[in-house]
Amino acid sequence: MLHVLDLMASFWLGQLNLKALPPNPIQWFGASLIILVPIMAAVLLTVTKRWRWLYREWITTQDPKKIGVMYILVAFGMLLRGGADVALIKTQQALSVGASNGILSASHFQQIVTAHGTIMIFFVAMGLMFGIINLILPLQIGSRDVAFPFLNATSFWLFFFGMVLVNVSLVLGDFAATGWLAYPPLSELRYSPSVGVDYWIWSLQIAGVGSLLAAINFIVTILKMRVKGMNFMKMPMFVWSVLGSMLLVAFAFPILTATLTLLALDRTLGMHFFTSGAGGNMMMYVNLIWAWGHPEVYILILPAFGVFSEVVATFSKKRLFGYTSMVWAIGAIVLLSFIVWLHHFFTMGAGSDVNAFFGIMTMVIAIPTGVKLFNWLFTMYRGRIKLDSPMLWFIGFVVIFTIGGMAGVLMAVPPIDFQLHNSLFLVAHFHMMIVGGVVFADFAAITYWFPKIFGFKLNETLGRWAFWLWLVGFLTSFIPLYILGFMGATRRLDHYSASLGWQQLFIVSGIGAALIGAGVGVQLLQFAYSIYKRKDNLDKTGDPWDGRSLEWSLPSPVPFYNFARLPEVTSRDAFWEAKKIHFKDNRKYEDIEIPKNTPLAFLIALMAFLFAFSVVWHIWWVATMALLAIIVGLIIRSMDEQTDYVLAAQEVEKLDKSHLKGARA
Amino acid sequence: MLRTKRRWVVLLALLLVLMASVIYLSSVNIPVLEPKGIIADKEFRLLVTVVLIMSVVALPVFGLLAYIVWKYNEKNQIRKKYSPDWESNKYIEGTWWAIPTILIVILSIITWNATYALNPYNPIPSKNKTLVVQVVALDWKWLFIYPSLRVASINKLMMPVNTPVHFYLTADAPMNSFWIPQLSGQIYAMPGMQTQLYILANQSGEYNGWSANISGIGFAGMMFKADVVSASQFRAWASTTLLRAPALTIARYNNLIKPSTYVASAFYANPAPNIFNLTIDKYMMPNYHGAVQ
After folding, report:
1. Which residue in A562, A601, B230, B253 has the fewest CB atoms around it within 10 Å?
2. Is residue B83 a part of any domain in this protein?
3. How many domains does chain B have?
4. Is the same domain home to A354 and A222?
């Protein structure tokens, strides 16, 4: 009888059972937070009677501006989650010395390290980047929408549910304890028999497909939807950088998807692509994952470069210096980023020719990057620099990125890399590139474009406080890691012996992390306070910074149709030039097609989540049904021929005039 | 007035931090910067060279940044030019392309030569005969086998000073990376694969070694001591071990490969022949059913 019950349970629930619940108090605490957040959100929505609002305005929306806001909200939420991971990592590393074992078990520590890396790259850095692209890109090219609004919503919801899946692992089962790139054979069933690696695979798989779809969408948007007169060499630099980045996504993410699929086949269906036995080859995995992983770094950094190109020109009240050079630099980086992946494993025993080639190619990337740096400096030269907080983030970026970049060139020399590989020196290097480069740019972008989306500026004093806390905290946290790297400290250590003399530096680094935490706290306060005091900081002109590109020609907040009348562009810095001449605007209003709201994107992504979750736990009947549901959803969408509605010209005119009146008042 | 005062406070704080760092750094052991082996020493010199070359470009960037931000700040009252439409100058831009290019060409030549010169597979010439050591990364300890001396050890690497040591590495565990920072750079140890590394320690002493690649829950405990001793001490150690230590039979090896953490060092005599090759073979062959499990 029991046997039958067992069989039934394993049919209905796969491998899921009560043992999947968290085993210790710290994990219970994490799990209850993860459960509590959605419950609190649900209560709040019920009390304020906003379920319908949530459904109409957000879940079903096709508007890239709203999708952009949701990306950034999720990314900030995950920044807190990844930050909580940092708090645990730093506490453990400060305490777990000699006889003491700190607060975490080795396995739990390694799960946290893995989750930290995965979440910060895929759900914070990527989320902030896609959020900003969604918000700004259509506006900058004078478009009313992206090329495929439904695809765009699907991308976001796939990203969202990828994030949910990572966090579900806190409550049910565990997470990968393999490091964020899960090298086999450690990530194979033999050494990681629990569901952790499966959670990792499938959350990245969902989010990764979302990124690929988004990239295709933005490439087509940039190629086909630019406003009249905006040829390639008149595009704002941010648009160029997004084009470069999205091309990289389109070429690199299929590699990730394929690699993860092969690893999933190994783990789920007993195949042997990367196992250590039966003909599998783990070195193939290492190559493949970095063939995606290195372009990924440039996927993140290119839009960051784009943001700074906009910010520096605006706050220096001067044209961007060396536009053509900048475009060529982006092109060079796009090409080169695909022929450097081997520098992540010079220590795997490749011959001198191979190592030397990849080392030199890596250094060559420093050339276009250096050119960009000098061009920004020369954009400021003979300008009128206004040191608002976006500019502060830029200056912080230049300092940190130059230090981090030098560390990068150092590690590009294979024999030097033999001494620095996988050490905390490396950890310090890539944090300087991704935090100092990408995240600082995202913060600059959020401060800079916030009034455009919400109609009021963020509080500047708190913004400055946040910047200084971040900068000082960041340097305090990561300079010691460079030294620890020279001391031989490797990454992902949950324990070390006291005689090594590492503890003081780990503590200093922890203090730095706490300062960064304070910086994030001030940022949250800044959002709250700015919303509370929004009447004081209203942007009535739509052009609070004396901007240069088309988005500043629109009222703030931007109406849902973006442009009531489409502009025509004759030069770079289109809006800056337009402000110089007083032209009589006699363009006619016309009908605008707007995509209808639909819950299908959300539902398809929800089904993808169900599919992934049930594959993780081997609940095959749910997986099958979810897969079928996705296919049915796609068919339903394909049959729907009335996906748009028309906003009549008179209606547009009425709305536009009321916006203009609001601006004058 | 308040601003200048604040500036001084910040400057003073920075100076204090700098002084404290210098005092601290001069009092601690920094293995990568204090090489005791000829390979680590060459790698260290290369590191210093590259840092110096890079600072030729990096320091002016910092200077230029500070100068431009100060001078062209709109709050700065000094007379200065404002050219809002100046966006390109092919000579200046040419310079920006040229300077990093020249720098990278120089670095590339250095890199190319150094990569060949410091290939870990290069034998190290010496009047002393090269010693062969086979390294097997296990869950979670290091096994060192000295085939010519018929001894073996766990988590303790005995080496004669001024003698080239030729390591062959593999793993009977997930990927690991074998690293003794004061003696040389690291190399991966992977199951079913064999990598190589040459080391020559030119000073006696006890150095730390560990794995630099995450390999499971016992990863942090994969630390070992590399004990560099005189040739006579080394010979004495080998002969005592051969006489006194228990034999490393296949059965004992099969016991050793079972996962264990923070393992104390141990010595073995008469390692069963071919443990190293059998360990590689068992991952190379499908459906392997050999003596080594």
Report:
1. B230
2. no
3. 2
4. yes
Three-state DSSP state, A647: strand
Q: Are residues A29 and A95 in the same domain?
A: no
Question: Is residue B247 assigned to a domain?
Answer: yes
Which tens digits make up the pLDDT trace of B11-25?
999 999 899 888 888
Report if residue A245 sits inside a domain: yes
The amino acid that residue B222 corresponds to is M
Is the domain of B244 the same as that of B150? yes
Q: Answer yes or no: do B162 and B96 share one domain.
A: no
Confidence grade of residue A583 (pLDDT, cut at 50, 70, 90): low
What is the number of domains present in chain A?
Answer: 2
- Structural domain including B7 reads 2-75+89-117
Same domain, yes or no, for A29 and A105? no
Candidate from A282, A351, A409 with C-beta closest to B175: A282
The tokens describing A91, both together, are 């506490």
Name residue B151's beta-bridge partners.
B146, B269
Q: What is the pLDDT of residue B57?
A: 82
Name the band, by pLDDT with cuts 50, 70 and 90, for residue B287.
low
Residues A436 and A449 in one domain: yes
Tell me whether residues A178 and B214 touch, CB distance under 8 A.
yes
Supply the range of the domain harboring residue A329: 60-559+566-587
Q: Are residues A392 and A514 in the same domain?
A: yes
pLDDT of the residue at A28: 84
| Statement to judge: residues B152 and B104 lie in one domain | no
Q: What is the spatial order of strands in the sheet that B224-229 belongs to?
A: B156-160, B224-229, B205-211, B176-180, B184-189
Contacts of A186 in chain B (CB under 8 A): 174-175, 214-216
Contact A133, A218 (CB under 8 A): yes
> B64 with B145, same domain?
no
- CB count within 10 Å of CB A216 equals 17
> Coil, strand, or helix at residue A571?
coil
Closest of A416, A427, A470, A475 to residue A447, by C-alpha? A470
Label residue B286 by pLDDT band (50, 70, 90).
low
**pTM as predicted:** 0.95
For an interface test with A, the pick among B113, B187, B214, B262 (most A C-beta atoms closer than 10 Å) comes out as: B214
> Which 21-80 residues of chain B touch chain A by CB within 8 A?
24-25, 28-33, 40, 42-44, 46-47, 50-51, 54-55, 57-58, 61-62, 64-65, 68-69, 72-75, 80
Residue of higher predicted confidence among A16 and B171: B171
A27 contacts: CB under 8 Å, gap ≥ 6:
A108, A170
Rounded distance between C-alpha atoms, residue A636 and residue A59, angstroms: 18
> Is the model's pLDDT at A665 over the cut of 50?
no
Helices A389-412 and A282-315: crossing angle, nearest 10°? 150
Residue B107 lies in a domain: yes
Q: Are residues B151 and B34 in the same domain?
A: no
Does a structural domain hold residue A651? no
Cβ-based neighbour number of residue A29 at 10 Å: 13
Residues from chain B contacting residue A351 (CB–CB below 8 Å): 119, 121
